[in-house]
Amino acid sequence: FLSGLSGLLHVDGLLATFVTLSLLFLCRSIVNVQSPRPLWHALFFFFLMAGFAILTKSPALLLLPFTGLVLFIYTLRLADKTVAERIRWLIWAGSIWLIALVITLFLLLPAFWVSPQHVVGTITGIAGRHIEQAFRPTFFMGRVGLNHGPLFYPVTMIFRLSPITLSGLILALFLTARHKSWRVMTRWLWWGWAVFFVAGISVASKKFDRYALPVFPGLIILAVLAWYEVGNRLVRWRRFVWGGMILGQLVYLAAFWPYPLLAFNPLAGGPAVAAQVMTVGWGEGIGMAGRWLAAHDESAAEKTAVSGIAPALAPFFPGETLFMEESGIAPADYVIVTLNGRQLDAAAQAQMTANLDLVHTFHFGGLDQAWIYANPEPIERVRPQVDWPEARLFGDRVRLLGADVQAEDGRIYFFAHWQLIQPGGRYIVRLDLLDEAGNRWSGLETELLNEVYHLPQYWADGESPLLSYKIPVPPGMPPGTYVVALSLFNWNDGAQLPILAADGRFLGVTYRSEPVEVPLAARPALVEQLAIPHRTEAEWLNGRLQLLGYSLSREELLAGETVTIDLFWQGTDKLPSELKLLLTLGETAVSYPLSRFDTANWRVGEIVHEKYALPVPPEMATGTYTVQMQINGTDETAVSLGQLSITATDRQFTLPDDIATPLQFQLGTDILLQGLTLKTPQRQPGEVIQFTLYWQTKSQPDTLLSAFAHLLAPDGQVIAQDDHWPGGLPSQTWAAGQVIIDEFRIEIPPDVPPGIYPLAVGLYMPENGQRLAAYDSFGNRLDNDRIILPIEVEIVTANE
Length: 800
Hints:
By secondary structure, the chain is α+β, with helices and mostly antiparallel strands. Helices cover 28% and strands 30% of the residues.
């Protein structure tokens, strides 16, 4: 196990190396308790190696409290020293520790030079996420799950130890119990490190057998010492004991060469039992398959193959290696299945290979490790037809030639065809998966790169990469209709780039794809896969319907805003059709279908995550209110879903008497422009035009609106503008009849020539740039859906 991971240059192998070296130096520094202080150079190198370990992987942070415990015990053992001497020793050791650790971290991790607090937060944050949640299920004791409890590491370590090492550890325990010479601090240190480290990593939800690797060298040291002791006690048989130990270890290694990670302790049952207990395989079977295809298929270079781990196949297979996550198995000539994959989901693997032809089985280490299947009818991969008749422009920087979205096998792919308008630049691509109600389910943010991961500044002239983005589907998301929203941001300042038509028309700041139907997942989600902030034990219909938990998008809102409530359901048995949910907040009650995915179609054990919008009435008073829910048609009492803190806003429902210029315009069906006040109609270049508009709404808007004000040139071109939320508040918070007093500030460019300039105003939806239809007092629709104000601005020079 140790040689296999070290041979891969895996990060856990490096961690084990640095941890072992640091602990060896620690042993050297405390070997003589009669010394007034530890050997300073050994202690220095201990912390130097500890720093290397921490920079390698965050679990090495466990070295710090463990070292503190060891040094504390060491201090207690200085029985002939006074308290003052012990304190001085601790200060000495602490100074060496601080110097060595600071030197290591600051010299070898330049990020510490800029923001040490951020680096520490990042390292501890990664460790914290591993403690809180695992994201990839694993196989243990016949069960596939995310957190296998405290027995995981002790059990898997028994299988990963060699029989020589395991028997040596049993001897070491016996010797420690029977002989005082074995009860020395340096040997207790290795036992203590094994227990301390395994206990520390067992707290984390994310568990793999390789995470315990840093304790293996210490256990090997203890086993060797035990066999050495036995040899010394059996003087006449010493050579046979030591030679037999070395020979046995070599035979064990040779039996599984060249795949040492497929070795499992025969004293625990060997590979056959291990396959029933823990995950088997590191992709060795995939490499075997790649080499076999290269040797047995003369046309392999012209074919394609797919496996669960593409990097394990590509170096050995002469043809094209496909990514399972991107292409699936349909376009592949060969499909490679591993024992590991069958452990995780035997039913899915059987379904995937049902129509394929078995070509070869690989047997190694007493187990069938991998299988090659031939696809009798591979489907030719077709380049997505994403190009549009007219491209969309992200400002004057990037051109989107076309886009498309596809959903298959629980995956959503967004295809984008990019081209630079201006060379260079760095951009962030943001993709959001939205349902029909606009709720965000998942998404991703990534830099804009071409197919070979080059930044735009390195793209060739005229290059137009067609890129595929995989959007994760959260567990439990119901099947249905979804869209993908695309936004592009400037990497330097985070500014969102506007989307323009080819003729310069503003189309909003987000592109929404055509709707895509997301099918039901092949298997129900696992409870362990859900990140549920607040868990509950509520149930209905005699336990057939359970509420696993909930979350609120916000807990503090303005009156008139909307809170999104996430509920996590599970059906333990067949459910009736069209169940209804009733949400209440104060005197407000809203009814929804329990799920867009009809409950009658739920499979037994189905977990469904749903989102519900609960509007807060604009007239609701300031206070704290409880959100409650009920299932319509049942007798069960309401379930509390937490509390919301609501703040009422000041509202005005009558127009002021001092409006300078009354107006009569209508925008959309429910919003009126009732007046205008322009403070100073004469301004100079570089100054600011200030004016106020008075809007009034007939009903509460259901979409977010922005107001625009344009200073127009004589030819109608926009010289300067001001865009913002009317009145500074989201339009969904307006109440029917409310008057919104909206102040504008337009900065006049310094190079504007003197003259008379009109002002144009209107409303639009910022998501897509669509303006609300604008009408005059006679009901005539205005050109470009904008209102030309009856007062113009005169721009004069300073000497006029």
